[in-house]
Amino acid sequence: MAKTTPGRFFEDFRLGEVIRHATPRTVTTGDVALYTALYGSRFAVQSSDAFARGIGYPSAPLDDLLVFHVVFGKTVSDISLNAVANLGYAECRFLQVVYPGDTLDTTSEVIGLKENSSRKTGVVYVRSTGRKPDGSKVLEYVRWVMVNKRDESAPAPGDHVPTLQSAVDPATLGSACPTINGNAYDYGLAGSPDQFGDYAPGEKIDHVDGMTVEEAEHQLATRLFQNTARVHFNQFAQAKSKIGRRLIYGGHVISLARSLSFNGLGNAFHVAAINGGRHVAPLFAGDTVFAWSEVIDRAELPGRTDVGALRLRLVATKDRPCADHPLRTGKDYDPAVILDLDYWALLPR
Amino acid sequence: MAKTTPGRFFEDFRLGEVIRHATPRTVTTGDVALYTALYGSRFAVQSSDAFARGIGYPSAPLDDLLVFHVVFGKTVSDISLNAVANLGYAECRFLQVVYPGDTLDTTSEVIGLKENSSRKTGVVYVRSTGRKPDGSKVLEYVRWVMVNKRDESAPAPGDHVPTLQSAVDPATLGSACPTINGNAYDYGLAGSPDQFGDYAPGEKIDHVDGMTVEEAEHQLATRLFQNTARVHFNQFAQAKSKIGRRLIYGGHVISLARSLSFNGLGNAFHVAAINGGRHVAPLFAGDTVFAWSEVIDRAELPGRTDVGALRLRLVATKDRPCADHPLRTGKDYDPAVILDLDYWALLPR
Amino acid sequence: MAKTTPGRFFEDFRLGEVIRHATPRTVTTGDVALYTALYGSRFAVQSSDAFARGIGYPSAPLDDLLVFHVVFGKTVSDISLNAVANLGYAECRFLQVVYPGDTLDTTSEVIGLKENSSRKTGVVYVRSTGRKPDGSKVLEYVRWVMVNKRDESAPAPGDHVPTLQSAVDPATLGSACPTINGNAYDYGLAGSPDQFGDYAPGEKIDHVDGMTVEEAEHQLATRLFQNTARVHFNQFAQAKSKIGRRLIYGGHVISLARSLSFNGLGNAFHVAAINGGRHVAPLFAGDTVFAWSEVIDRAELPGRTDVGALRLRLVATKDRPCADHPLRTGKDYDPAVILDLDYWALLPR
Are C10 and C148 in contact, with CB atoms under 8 Å apart? Predict the structure, then answer.
């Protein structure tokens, strides 16, 4: 009779297990149009076939975060349906360009398990991999989530916490970016004169604009990604929760902040890796998202003179402009901060 | 001067008349992306070109209900602009696979007319047919609606109530499903292990999840289908009505319930026919839709060993989870029930 | 450090200067689907590849206003980020058919500057041109906006107010419409029997229906067009303004009114030129838009017997049906009027 799934609980995961996720998904120019409508992204490479062709792509590639959300969405019903909290990301690398017409599916390997002392929950670490049908990898990342136990008294598997890199080695970046023809990169058309060499570690950039979020918008986005997490869609159930409201998918915040970051980082056209990220506080419909960035580091890519990598901290706030780069109040995050993301972006040199 | 149409009234219809509807519509991957964003559908065949090709389609077909809504939408301005109520559906068959790039148009034949005893309204029965430009049929269904009279004293045509089948004969199903290669059907990737043979009549399945609906969502959907029914869009007029609010297109509820039904019926990939359906109560923005299904019957398709048909009752509720399969309270519907749909779905064997 | 742009102020513009705008944009069937979902447009030529091919297009062209919005959106961050008011349009001509897959970019020439007597603001006139990557023109229009000065005491350039035509010469219309095969134009399928010759100057048409607008809808639209005007998206900032709410992009109103005008002008399939337009009052979410049209003039196109041009006034109101064609109360606009647009549309003869 159990044809529906209540989702896995902590004691259902096994170390080393590989989970294949439904549903495979062909991404199209329809998804691209929706991504633009949802986030207002303006990076020229992803927006214009002509611009992309000019610098060496066969056509405009998909926005990297659209690829991330589609690959991520598939994991939810197997990994995080009974999750209490999405704790972190690490070692996320974009490994191949994705174009409209490509099909993506996802598998996850359980790489860590640790029961909490309360015995009510445990932390599950998975390495999820998005692939094309030929098996080639498109995206890989580690995520860890706190998952409820079905039964407190159930024996837990022995603890195993994986060792994770604090940042992706820049020498491994660039697989999802073809060698570009820098002479053909039109900075005027791209909307910013600033190249890789114009940014220096320590530099902070306020992205100025704010974007207010509506329930219909985040629901459309999250369904587009076939992400089934109940907290995003079911107001009837959420009304009975402590929070009382629908929670907005954390990836929605990342994409909003990344789109806002165009104003200041207009040539940071490719997200090559995500070193880590924390959803510091929830976002709700009606809130306005602002963002600022800090340049943390700069790296050349081995053997490549066309692009360089900036390590960026991208901070998003709600209902709080970012002219003064809010981050911490004492040891805690500033109460307006909702996202603290650490990633590598590529820019033309 | 009468260049605009106020819509037809009951006395404007003639038995046997065939009405050609505007506007022809080419369906695209853009529509597919929007359908996913609006409903979160996750059936692998419609989601992945690679999956569809693997089992014998040239590419992913359109979701059957997207085809239904596009064909249906065209009929509204000619048939139901002055309708008081959408009373029922019958004999709905999907007759041909539809792919992105296909163009659809619709005609309707008036097959029944019956004035109500009040003489203020009458019931109009139409058989609507969706076609590709070569004239081949894509979809056929009977719908009956209660339509206002312009003038109570107008003579009505003689009553004629058509005889309708209570269910589509399963021997006629399958035209819109190519012979599939069952060996290539990947149940892991599809998200459910359950095949045709795993379901038995009498079985009831709670689809668990709920989906809250926003005004922007149903308006986007209904405009996408070029459905012009005023009650869905015009709050200024609705505010003056007894209901006071915009009514949500009944098809929106059907698609939400069908998408929710993936959790429990993940391999029921093709809606082959709709035997009947009733919009028991209206849905409004802010309500949360839940759904459950009952297996009513099972049938093999003549000469086909690749797929079998399940006759399913799909019940949707608002603000009421379906763990106990709510349907009736005494002779009446449970007050939470909003949809009672009877359809045939195909599953791999 | 100034990697972000606060937008140009009045004293930053130079007469004769040509500004290249970011971001180039490939338009796709995804954009077409979203345009349909946002506005419910039903013109057969733009909706059906088969219909378009029948009359001589290679496939369905993009809706003219979608082209307008994409070309316009790019100008905002350079021209009107610090605008106080969008004052008018003139000399807008559609010069080339646009199909899914085409890429558009925009440049603007500053053709007029006039400081206001307050010295706090000035009027900037630009002629904006949308082009395909081969440099061929797609669309040209003049717009003038009132822009804040950064510094009241800053010297202003000498005043220059360009001479603008009060209407586009009909002899110059038609570049963006191929010669159509009138015999193949199926009026039944298009949804209206009325041709060019059936409309007479002075004729007024109420478009009957109303459409209520939601915040999510206009935000999705405006981001789709990569229009970055802050007033549309940032409720946090708007809450502190006199208006207190997000303003809806004026182009959203134009597209809603144009879509409503299908009921009465179903064969006016191509917007060939916009002679002028005024956003009389702002529209806010929750308001319901109605529209009516007046035929101002009629013109044949030199050497063409396939199509003729109607000069139309398109008036939109909020929360006010248009059966009595509201326009003025004394010398002022009727308080319900929000748009007064003057354009040329082509219809088959």
Answer: yes
